[in-house]
C-alpha cells in the first residue's frame, strides 16, 4: 500500500519541511499549492535561506524574522533585504560586493558565524576583502561571533590595521593569506581566544617571493587545533609551530619540495618539538617522486605519527596520506 505525500500527517510533513528543505526550496516547491502547506510553511522557525538567483528574493519577506542562516551565491546581488534579517546568526557570501559587506553592518551584532568565499582566489575584490576584515575586527563587530572565514588583505601603508579587538567567543577561523610568516602573526595577535585555526596559503605569483622573517617572540597559548593548506615550505612551517606551544591536533597539505624521505625527516624533527601533540594528519602530493615498499617502511619508522601512512595514485599524482 502506497502513501501519497499529501496523506502524511502534519507532524511528519512539518518535520520534512524543517529538516530537508531550505526556505527558497520550500517557497518554490510548496508555497501556494494549498492552504495546508501555506500554514505549515508559515509556522516554521529557524529558516535557512540559500539565495542563488535574483528571483529567490520573493520568499524573503515571508520568512524575514525567522531566518537564522543565510547563504548568498555569486549571482545574487540584491542587498536591501539584509537589514530585515534581524535574527540571522550565520552568513556566507560568495564573491561579495562592497555594498553587501556594508549592509552586513546592520546585522553584525547578532552574527555568530560569518564567511566570505571567493570562487577564484586570484581574482579577489580587494576592497570587499578589506572591508570584511575591518568589519570583523572593529569596535562595531559582534561579541557573539564564534567562527569566521575570510581572506586576509595585504598590509598597506594607506590603510590602518584594525585596532586590537578581543572577541571573547571567536574560537575558530579559516583564513586565506599570502605571506605566512608575517600574516600568521597578525592573525594570532588579533584572535587571542582562538582554539582552532585553519590557514590556506595563496601562492600569489604577483607578489614578491616570501623571505623567512624571524619575528619577535610571541606565543598563542589557546590554539589546540591547526590545519594548514598549500604549505610551501617546511622552513616556514617550523617558524609557525614556534607560536603554538599547546597544539594538540595538526593537519598539513602540501606538495613535496624535495625527496619524500628528506621531507618526512624534516617534518619529524619539527613535530617532535611540539610537546602536547596528540594527532598528526597530512596529505602530501608529488608529480614525480615515488617510494618502493622498503622506503615506505623506512618512512613509517621515522616517527610514530607516520606509522599509518599509505600511498594513493590519483590523476598522475602520488599522494601520501595519514
Secondary-structure blueprint:
Blueprint: H1 10-20, H2 23-29, H3 35-42, E1 47-51, H4 60-63, E2 67-72, E3 90-94, H5 98-104, E4 113-117, H6 126-136, E5 147-151, E6 172-177, H7 180-190, E7 196-201, E8 225-231, H8 234-241, E9 249-255, H9 260-271, E10 279-286, H10 293-302, E11 310-314, E12 317-321
Parallel strand pairs: 1-2, 2-3, 3-4, 4-5, 5-6, 6-7, 7-8, 8-9, 9-10
Antiparallel strand pairs: 10-12, 11-12
Helix pairs in contact: 5-6, 8-9, 9-10
Form type: globular
Strand content: 15-25%
- Total helix count? 10
Question: Biggest β-sheet: count, sense, barrel?
Answer: 12 strands, mixed
**Counted beta strands:** 12
For the record, give the distance between the C-alpha atoms at the N and C termini, rounded to a whole number.
49 Å
Strand-and-helix sequence, N→C?
A: HHHEHEEHEHEEHEEHEHEHEE
Spans of at least 5 consecutive residues whose pLDDT stays below 50 are 156-160, 205-215
Evaluate the radius of gyration.
Answer: 24 Å
Lateral arrangement of strands in the main beta sheet: 1-2-3-4-5-6-7-8-9-10-12-11
Mean pLDDT: 83
Instruction: Output the structural class.
Output: alpha/beta
Percent helix range = 25-40%
Amino acid at each position: 500500500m502506497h502513501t501519497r505525500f499529501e496523506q502524511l500527517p502534519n507532524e511528519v510533513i512539518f518535520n520534512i519541511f524543517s529538516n530537508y528543505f531550505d526556505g527558497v526550496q520550500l517557497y518554490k516547491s510548496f508555497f501556494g499549492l494549498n492552504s495546508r502547506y501555506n500554514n505549515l510553511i508559515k509556522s516554521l522557525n529557524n529558516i535557512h535561506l540559500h539565495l542563488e538567483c535574483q528571483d529567490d528574493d520573493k520568499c524573503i519577506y515571508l520568512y524575514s524574522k525567522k531566518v537564522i542562516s543565510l547563504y548568498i551565491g555569486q549571482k545574487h546581488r540584491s542587498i536591501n533585504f539584509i537589514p530585515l534579517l534581524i535574527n540571522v546568526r550565520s552568513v556566507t557570501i560568495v564573491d561579495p560586493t562592497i555594498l553587501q559587506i556594508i549592509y552586513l553592518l546592520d546585522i553584525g551584532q547578532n552574527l555568530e558565524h560569518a564567511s566570505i568565499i571567493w570562487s577564484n582566489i586570484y581574482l579577489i575584490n580587494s576592497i570587499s576583502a578589506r572591508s570584511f576584515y575591518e568589519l570583523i575586527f572593529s569596535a562595531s563587530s559582534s561579541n557573539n561571533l564564534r567562527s569566521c572565514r575570510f581572506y586576509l588583505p595585504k598590509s598597506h601603508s594607506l590603510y590602518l590595521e584594525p585596532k586590537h579587538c578581543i572577541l571573547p567567543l571567536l574560537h575558530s577561523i579559516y583564513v586565506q593569506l599570502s605571506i605566512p610568516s608575517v600574516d600568521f602573526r597578525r592573525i594570532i595577535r588579533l584572535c587571542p581566544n582562538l582554539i582552532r585555526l585553519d590557514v590556506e596559503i595563496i601562492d600569489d605569483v604577483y607578489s614578491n617571493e616570501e623571505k623567512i622573517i624571524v619575528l619577535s617572540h610571541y606565543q598563542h597559548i589557546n590554539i589546540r587545533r591547526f590545519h594548514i593548506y598549500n604549505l610551501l615550505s617546511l622552513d616556514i612551517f617550523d617558524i609557525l609551530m614556534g607560536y603554538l606551544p599547546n597544539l594538540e591536533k595538526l593537519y598539513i597539505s602540501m606538495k613535496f619540495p624535495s625527496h619524500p624521505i628528506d621531507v618526512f625527516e624534516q617534518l619529524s624533527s619539527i613535530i617532535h618539538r611540539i610537546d602536547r601533540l596528540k594527532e598528526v594528519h597530512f596529505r602530501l602530493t608529488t608529480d614525480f617522486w615515488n617510494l618502493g615498499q622498503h622506503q615506505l617502511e623506512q618512512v613509517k619508522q621515522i616517527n610514530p605519527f607516520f606509522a599509518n601512512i599509505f600511498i594513493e595514485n590519483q590523476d598522475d599524482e602520488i599522494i601520501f596520506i595519514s
